[in-house]
User: What shape does this take?
Amino acid sequence: MSDNIWFPLRSQPGPRLHSVDGRGRKIDPEVLGVAQSIAIRLIAYAERLIGDPALATSLLEESAAIVSRSVRRAAQLNRPPIANLEAYLFRAFIRQVNSAKRKLLLVSRAVTAAQTGSPNGICYSEKFELKVLADEFVTRCDPVTRDMFYRRIEGFSWREIGEFYGISAHAAEARFSKNLNKVRKRLSFK
Assistant: This one.
């Protein structure tokens, strides 16, 4: 087979991006085209940093939605269009990847702290359940609740989190608790 130079090589198809991101925000067709053309390189880069190609693809879609919003806003304000859309999208994507990497490190530290034990005497099985619960919670909850989780790990109070989302501290804590209980039920924890 290697002697047949005429035999066409299969090029690796790029990931298919959606016309809306995970939050339902529309992506401009021009931005989607640029994102699709550079997706293979960007997702490979992000996968090395965060280890998950699906998360990398979602981050690219979110970045494309953010850039689309900037393109629409510039058009509404009669500003000149973005000169280098590819570079602009790349920079937005790198910001998203760096933010996700920081959040993954925070979760990893929290889980590691739970595994190593604390002076309050948590046994190994409880530590393991806590780690599984934290992992499942992060993967199964909506983006707002996930952000609340990361902010709590960073040391924000419920009052600060509530102010960020324009709700009361009690409402923020209740939303977080409600989603935590849903994950517990799915995992059959008591």
